[in-house]
Amino acid sequence: MTKIFEKAPIPNRWLVVAGSLLMQLSLGAIYTWSLFNQPLVETFGWSAGDTVFTFSLTLAFFSLAVIVAGRIQDKTGPRIVAIAGGILTGLGVSMASFATNIYFLYLSYGVIAGIGIGAAYVTPLATCSKWFPEKRGLITGLILAALGLGGMLFKPVILFFIENYGVSKAFLYLGLIYGSLIVAGAMALVVPPRGYQPPGWHPPAPETGKTVNREIPPLQAMATPQFYMLVVWMFFGVSAGLMIISVAASIGTEMVGLSLGAAGNAVVTISLFNAFGRLGWGWISDRLGRKFSMLGIFILLSAAMFYMALIPMNYAGFLMATCAVGFSFGGLAAMLPTITAEWFGLKHVGNNYGAIFIFYGLAALTAPRLAIAIGFEKALLVAGFACLGCIITAVFAKAPE
Q1: What is the pLDDT, as a whole number, of residue 4?
Q2: Are 158 and 174 in contact (CB under 8 A)?
Q3: Structural domains of the chain, with CATH
Q4: Where does the Major facilitator superfamily (MFS) profile domain start and stop, copy by copy (predicted)?
């Protein structure tokens, strides 16, 4: 049955991209959780901290599921894994409509939907990388840009359901929408035949004395310093980005003195530049190299952290800094899976990137709480110095021998 599923003919590799974009737009809607916080507090009387923890659980189980799903898709192919992810995502979000206590919300939206999102998320990245070896950075950026835009696309839909039907019914309808769209997009996912090369393209010749045909399984990858370099980039880069993304409005009100409405505009600009960064850095890296791009991302991210921590900001400066964070965060999302595939090979990319992606979940659980616990200025300084460390490691970055 699995073999039949995966050998369905695909007339054009761009159909794989179209299905991947549909999936990612739907998965990106998960980052709109902040829209549910206040309605849940008002409806059920839960504390804001309790409701926000739902999103932390979602990200944590999301990152865990990426590891398992990556391993499974390497063996069975992407389509079945993506369909299962779509079903779980839709089921978890829909089940949240029946939550009358916070723990059922944690189970449904946090655990079940989080697992579904992680399973569905990893499949388009690995599949499209195999179809587009000549423009892998650009295609990865395009796929991930859709994830960044998903929240903006679904924001008015979510608000419409909440305002007209209440927050519980909104979960039900949104779960049905998310699940249906993800499953529909998953039907287009199929791996190319072994040895596939796009018409007119040939792999670059290896450098003298070196080979570019790396197929390194996870245990061997973990024995290389390059694996831990990717882990450092993932954890500290994502921590710096999520530290701003999760509390951008609070930084605007407390550090800049803006009204909540004005500070909230940073949420929109971060989303836009997050999408631009996923696409833009993919395009840049295809032309100027992955190493140049990683250096640029961390230089920009470090500069934004130090600027916000040390220099008094006005409204324009605040928006510029948050846009730089969004652009850098999007670039990390595009670069890390691309570099993983190029350093360790495509055969095990699901497993290898899944092992690295677990540190996204750890960053999501750590960074927002750190920002609140030690204060925004100190947290920004810590993040800035961490990004400086990432710049140093990027200077010495090179593929495994």
Answers
A1: 42
A2: yes
A3: 2-186 (1.20.1250.20), 218-395 (1.20.1250.20)
A4: 12-401
Neighbours of 220 (CB within 10 A): 15
Beta carbons within 10 angstroms of residue 164's beta carbon: 9
The reported pLDDT for the residue numbered 400 is: 81
What are the φ and ψ backbone dihedral angles of 43, each rounded to 5 degrees?
A: -80, -45
Amino acid symbol at 165: Y
Distance from CA of residue 102 to its chain's centroid? 26
User: How buried is 395 (Cβ within 10 angstroms: 0-12 exposed, 13-18 middle, 19+ buried)?
Assistant: exposed
Q: Please state, in angstroms and rounded to a whole number, the distance separating the CA atoms of residues 391 and 382.
A: 14
Backbone angles phi, psi at 347, to 5 degrees: -60, -40
Contacts 24+ apart (CB under 8 A), 390-395: 390/232, 390/233, 390/236, 390/237, 390/294, 390/298, 390/302, 391/295, 391/298, 391/299, 391/302, 393/229, 393/232, 393/233, 394/233, 394/291, 394/294, 394/295, 394/298, 395/295
| Percent helix, strand and coil across the chain, each to the nearest 5 | 80, 0, 20
Residue 14 tokens read as 């761009």
Please compute, for residue 360, the number of CA atoms within 13 A of its CA located in the half-sphere on the CB side.
20
The predicted pLDDT at position 183 comes to 96
Contact (Cβ atoms closer than 8 angstroms) between residue 162 and residue 39? yes
Q: Mean pLDDT of successive 10-residue segments in the chain (401 residues)?
A: 47 84 88 77 83 82 83 84 95 95 94 93 84 76 78 81 92 95 92 73 55 70 89 92 75 74 69 81 82 91 92 87 89 86 80 82 81 82 92 86 74
* Dist CA 236 CA 241 (whole Å): 9
Q: Are the CB atoms for 231 and 353 separated by under 8 Å?
A: no
> Can you give the pLDDT at residue 237?
92
Residue 303 tokens read as: 């500069």
The two three-digit tokens of residue 359, written as one number: 């540190």
pLDDT reported for residue 6 = 47
pTM greater than the 0.90 cutoff: no
Q: Report yes or no: 78 and 189 within 8 Å, Cβ to Cβ.
A: yes
Q: Which long-range contacts (CB under 8 A, 24 or more apart) does 201-206 make?
A: 201/133, 201/134, 203/133
Rounded distance, CA 108 to CA 103, Å? 9
